[in-house]
Amino acid sequence: MTTPSPTPIQLPAPAPLLTRGGWSAFIVALIVVCAVAPVLNLWVPAGSLFHLSDYAVALLGKIMCYAICALAMDLIWGYTGILSLGHGLFFALGGYVMGMYLMRQIGRDGNYKSDLPDFMVFLDWKELPWHWALSDSFIATLILIVAVPGVIAFVFGYFAFRSRIKGVYFSIITQAMTYAAMLLFFRNETGFGGNNGFTDFKRILGMPLATQNMRMTLFVLTGVTLLGFFLLARWLVRSKFGRVLQAVRDAESRVMFSGYSPLPYKLTIWTISAMMCGVAGALYVPQVGIINPGEMSAANSIEIAVWAAVGGRATLIGPIVGAFIVNGAKSWLTVTAPEFWLYFLGALFIAVTLFLPNGVVGLVKKIKDKTSKKGAAQ
Fold it and tell me: Which of 115, 182, 300, 333 has the fewest CB atoms within 10 Å around its CB?
């Protein structure tokens, strides 16, 4: 009697990275960033209704940098269940690496006509400290922008995750780490500009920063980076790696019982998230024109979590939307009613927590589902 051959297991076909509608929206966003915005800013006359002002370009560029941080937060909080209150540190580290390069690009055009940055001349420094050794190389700067936040995140994450620190304890430790770094960078002897940080940038790659063309170039580069990181995040969460991350978020003990070690998964996504924030900080500095230890404040790291919560965790697009909503409201309210801004932010976060646990994107999806059900019933 012959034994019947076992029926091969048919695995489901992998889902596409984006749906047809998703790719259409992505291409539209790419066209807006790379073509529409430059045309409206550079070629449409300033008096026209359709002109995109330099102020709007700078504001949108800054918010897109924040959106990258919110997307990075979604990868660790929304998909892995790790709430970090210290991502402002990685953002600032990337900004400081870029700031060091931009300070070296000033050359002898500073107030003291010295090869050293002005703040070093003022403090009577005779030579650059050792950690400024590669700051005159743009290639080295690009590497350090991701390497510095990545290495620090890897070392911190390795010891934290190996010790199985999680939940509120992990959040508190990340905030303490960021606060300690802020106090360190405030000290003049560290060579990071102390309280004032770095400012008065003049050139990048030998080209002047304070021109309309350069501002638009940085805007386009930031938008393309944001869209690229979105695709990377989408690919990560839809892969086997991403499914394990979500399993760790939902039931870490069961993941361990199934034979998976959560440590390498958590450590990998934590490091990737930190490097994304470092890139965001590096794009932020030449557009805003300053970087100081205030970027490491506890409030800044908490705001990153607020953006993700307002937009909708575990959606990828939600934190990006949340960053635009919150920072757009902030820009408007700090001009019209600056004394009410913090009250608005607190009320918004409480309202989202109580009434919109899935954020704005979750609300839109809920309304869309109800509408489709009504249409099907009719």
Answer: 115
**What CA–CA distances, in Å, run from 153 to 16, 235, 271, 277, 369?**
31, 22, 5, 11, 40
Of residues 369 and 80, more confidence is placed in 80
Alpha-carbon distance of 54 to 279, in angstroms, equals 23
CA dihedral 319, 320, 322, 327 (to 10 degrees): 130
CA distance 303 to 85: 9
Give pTM, 2 decimals: 0.94
Kindly report the length of the chain.
378
Residue type at 369 in one-letter notation:
D
**pLDDT of 15 over the 80 cut:** no
Is residue 1 over pLDDT 60? no
18-22 long-range contacts, Cβ below 8 Å, gap at least 24? 18/234
Residue 157 has pLDDT above 90, yes or no: yes
Position of tokens 């030449």?
286
Residue 107's nearest CA partner among 121, 117, 99 is 117
Q: Give CA–CA dist 67/175, Å, rounded.
A: 20
Between 103-112, 114-123, 280-289, 366-375, the lowest mean confidence (pLDDT) is in 366-375
CA distance 193 to 198: 6
Q: Are 106 and 200 in contact (CB under 8 A)?
A: yes
* The predicted structure's pLDDT at residue 348: 83
Alpha-helical regions (H) of the chain? 20-31, 37-38, 54-73, 87-105, 118-122, 138-162, 167-186, 212-238, 240-257, 262-288, 298-311, 317-336, 341-355, 359-377
Question: What is the residue-averaged pLDDT of the chain?
Answer: 92
DSSP string spanning 100-162? HHHHHHTGGGSTT--SS-HHHHHTT--S--GGGTTTT-HHHHHHHHHHHHHHHHHHHHHHHHH
| Residue 123 CB neighbour total at 10 angstroms | 14
